[in-house]
Specification:
The chain has 18 helices and 22 strands. The protein has 550 residues and is α/β, with parallel strands linked by helices. The chain folds into three domains: 150 residues, 2-Layer Sandwich (Nucleotidyltransferase, domain 5), CATH 3.30.420.40; 132 residues, ATPase, nucleotide binding domain (Nucleotidyltransferase, domain 5, 2-Layer Sandwich), CATH 3.30.420.40; 198 residues, Carbamoyltransferase, C-terminal domain (DHBP synthase), CATH 3.90.870.20. Helix 7 crosses helix 9, helix 9 crosses helix 10 and helix 13 runs parallel beside helix 17.
C-alpha cells in the first residue's frame, strides 16, 4: 500500500510516505518554504498544509497522488471540543476545527489527482504514539507514552501496543491540564518564543537552582491514576517577566530549573504508572515533551523500563509519519522499524557539481572528503557538513551539521556566535558508538538521535570542554560505522590527528532559520557565516579561496 501522512494542525507541518510498510520519505514543510516551525502570522500559522513536502515525497517515490491508497491527517475533528469548554484561551480554535474538517479539499487542491475520499482523520495523540511504537526497534510490543501541548481534547496518552497489532489505551489526560502548555507558558514568561524555544528553557535550567520546586509541586504533579494536574501556577511569583531583548538573571534560571525538575518528577511518575499497568520492559516516547532529553534520561535511568526509545521527530511533524504507520498496521502491513532519521532530500554528485559550477564558486575534490574535513577540524576550523539525506526532526545528526574541535573551550562561544544564538546554549558531541562508554555514562548507548543526556566522565571533561554543559553533561550522538561509514571515517581521521574521539556537532543553520536542507541553502549559509570549510558531497569549498579565513 501507498500511504501519505500529513500533519497540518498546530505547528511543524510535515508529510511522510510509506510504501508497503517502509518509510521512503519524510520531511517538514519548513525545509522547503524556509519558515521555521511553519510559523506565519496568526491565524494562518496553525494550519498550513505541507504542500511542498507532500509533493516532494511523491516525487521522491516516483508516484502521483492518484496512486495513493490512503492519506492520513493527524487530527480528528470528530473528537474535538471547543477551547472554551476545555478552559483554554484560543480565539482561533473554531477555525482550526473548520480547517480540519475541510482537509481533504485543501489537500486535493495541493495534490492534483488525489481522491478526497481517501483521507482518514487519525486522533492526534494516537498518531504520536504510533510514530514511536510502530517505528521503534522493539518489534511491535511496547508501552507508549505521549505528552505534548494539546490534541483534540487531551494533552497525553498512555497506551500499550501489542505484537498482534492491537492497541490498548490506558489513560488520556483531559485539557486544560498539559505539561506541554505549562512549559510553553514558562517559555513565554522567560522571554522566549512559545511553542518553539522550549529547548532554551531546558538549557537555561542547568544554570539555576530549583528553589521554587515546592511551590510548583502544589500545582504540578501526577495524580496517581495515570494523569496529572498543572493548573494554577503564577509565574510572576517566581520571577518577573523577561523581555526578549533583556539579559536573563539568576531568578529566571531558578524558575527554569524548578520547572524542569518538577516536570521530570511528573514524567517519572507517569512512566512508573504505565509500567505497572502494562508490565512491559520497553517504552516508546513521542510528543513535544519527549524532546526534553534531560527528562528522557531520568526515565531511562530511574523508571522500571529496561529500554526507552524516542521518536527522532517527536514533535508534531512526527504525527505525519505516525498516522501513516497506523493506517498501514490497521490494514495488515507490519511497518518496518525506523533505521535512520535521514528521510529528507538528498543530492547526488552530479547535482552538486552542477550547482557549484552554476554559482561559479571555486571548489576542490579531495581524494577523501573525510580526511580533508578532519584536517580542517584539527587545525581548529569550523566546518559545514552537508552529506546524504536531510534529517527528519529537529536534530542535526551528521547530515546537515556544523562541526568543530571539542578540545577548545572557546569553540562553544565561537559556534554560538556563528549561529547568532544565546551563549548559554550547549553544543553536542558526536562519537563512534564503540567509544561512547569510555567517555559518557548514565544515558543509553547507542544514542543515535541526540535525545538523551549523558554524564561526561570526569577524566574527559578537561579534554573536550566545548561539548560539556555547565552541569557536566552532554547530549551525545553515537555513530555506527555500518550506518554512516563516511562520518565514522571522519571521526577516525580526527582522532588520529588529535587523540580525541569526539567532534562537536550542532545544526547547520543560523538563529531563527530552519536547518539547511538543499544545495542553495548550504551555499547561502556558507557565504553568510564565518565558516572555514564547506564539505558538500565529495567536494570542499574553502573560505581561504574567497580571500577570507583565519
Amino acid at each position: 500500500m501507498r500511504i501519505l501522512g500529513i500533519n497540518a494542525i498546530y505547528h511543524d507541518p510535515a508529510a511522510a510516505l510509506l510504501i508497503d510498510g517502509v518509510t521512503v520519505a519524510a520531511a517538514e514543510e519548513e525545509r522547503f518554504n524556509r519558515r521555521k516551525h511553519g510559523k506565519r502570522p496568526v491565524p494562518f500559522s496553525a494550519w498550513e498544509t505541507p504542500d511542498l513536502a507532500a509533493r516532494w515525497c511523491l516525487a521522491e517515490a516516483g508516484i502521483s497522488a492518484d496512486q495513493l491508497d490512503f492519506v492520513t491527517y493527524s487530527f480528528d475533528p470528530a473528537l474535538h471540543r471547543s477551547a472554551e469548554t476545555m478552559g483554554l484561551a484560543d480565539p482561533w480554535d473554531h477555525l482550526r476545527q473548520a480547517y480540519a474538517e475541510r482537509a481533504a479539499q485543501f489537500l486535493s487542491t495541493a495534490l492534483p489527482g488525489l481522491d478526497p475520499a481517501k483521507l482518514r482523520h487519525v486522533p492526534h495523540h494516537l498518531a504520536h504514539a504510533a510514530s514511536a511504537a510502530l517505528a521503534a526497534p522493539f518489534g511491535g510490543d511496547c508501552a507508549a507514552l505521549v505528552l505534548d501541548g494539546r490534541g483534540e481534547r487531551h494533552s497525553h496518552l498512555s497506551a500499550r501496543f501489542r505484537a498482534d497489532g492491537s492497541i490498548e489505551r490506558l489513560y488520556s489526560q483531559d485539557l486544560p491540564h498539559s505539561l506541554g502548555l505549562l512549559y510553553e507558558d514558562a517559555t513565554e514568561h522567560l522571554g522566549f518564543l512559545r511553542s518553539s524555544d522550549e529547548y532554551k528553557v531546558m538549557a537555561l535550567a542547568s544554570y539555576g537552582q530549583p528553589r521554587h520546586a515546592e511551590y510548583l509541586r502544589e500545582f504540578v504533579h501526577a495524580t496517581g491514576d495515570g494523569g496529572f494536574h498543572t493548573s494554577g501556577v503564577d509565574w510572576a511569583v517566581l520571577a518577573k517577566p523577561r523581555q526578549s531583548d533583556e539579559d536573563w538573571t539568576a531568578d529566571h534560571a531558578d524558575l527554569a530549573a524548578s520547572l524542569q525538575l518538577v516536570v521530570e518528577e511528573t514524567l517519572l511518575s507517569l512512566a512508573r504508572w504505565l509500567h505497572e499497568h502494562t508490565g512491559s520492559s520497553r517504552l516508546a516516547l513521542a510528543g513535544g515533551v519527549a524532546l526534553n532529553c534531560v527528562a528522557n534520561t531520568r526515565i531511562f535511568a530511574e523508571s522500571p523500563f529496561e529500554q526507552v526509545w524516542v521518536q527522532p521527530a517527536a514533535g508534531d511533524a512526527g504525527t505525519a509519519l505516525g498516522g501513516a504507520l497506523l493506517a498501514a498496521a490497521e490494514h495488515g502491513e507490519a511497518p518496518a522499524p525506523m533505521r535512520s532519521a535521514g528521510l529528507g532530500r538528498g543530492f547526488d554528485e552530479a547535482q552538486i557539481a552542477a550547482a557549484l559550477q552554476t554559482a561559479r564558486l571555486p571548489y576542490e575534490r579531495p581524494l577523501d572528503v573525510a580526511e580533508a574535513v578532519a584536517e580542517a577540524l584539527a587545525a581548529d576550523g569550523i566546518v559545514a557538513w552537508f552529506q546524504g539525506r536531510s534529517e527528519f526532526g529537529p536534530r542535526a545528526l551528521g547530515h546537515r551539521s556544523l562541526l568543530a574541535h571539542p578540545g577548545r573551550a572557546e569553540n562553544l562561544a565561537r559556534l554560538n556566535d556563528v549561529k547568532g544564538r544565546e551563549q548559554f546554549r550547549p553544543v553536542a558531541p558526536m562519537v563512534l558508538v564503540e567509544r561512547a562508554r569510555q567517555l559518557f555514562t548514565r544515558g543509553p548507548v547507542p544514542s543515535p538521535y541526540m535525545l538523551f543526556v549523558h554524564d561526561v566522565a570526569v577524566e574527559w571533561r578537561g579534554r573536550i570542554p566545548a561539548v560539556v554543559h555547565v552541569d557536566g553533561t552532554a547530549r551525545i550522538q553515537t555513530v555506527d560505522r555500518a550506518d554512516d561509514p563516511l562520518l565514522a571515517r571522519m571521526l577516525d581521521a580526527f582522532e588520529q590527528r588529535t587523540g580525541l574521539p569526539v567532534v562537536v556537532n550542532t545544526s547547520l543553520n543560523t538563529a531563527g532559520r530552519p536547518m539547511v536542507d538543499d544545495i542553495k541553502d548550504a551555499l547561502e549559509c556558507f557565504g553568510s557565516t564565518p565558516v572555514d570549510l564547506l564539505a558538500i558531497g565529495p567536494f570542499v569549498l574553502r573560505r581561504s579561496a574567497f580571500g577570507g579565513g583565519r
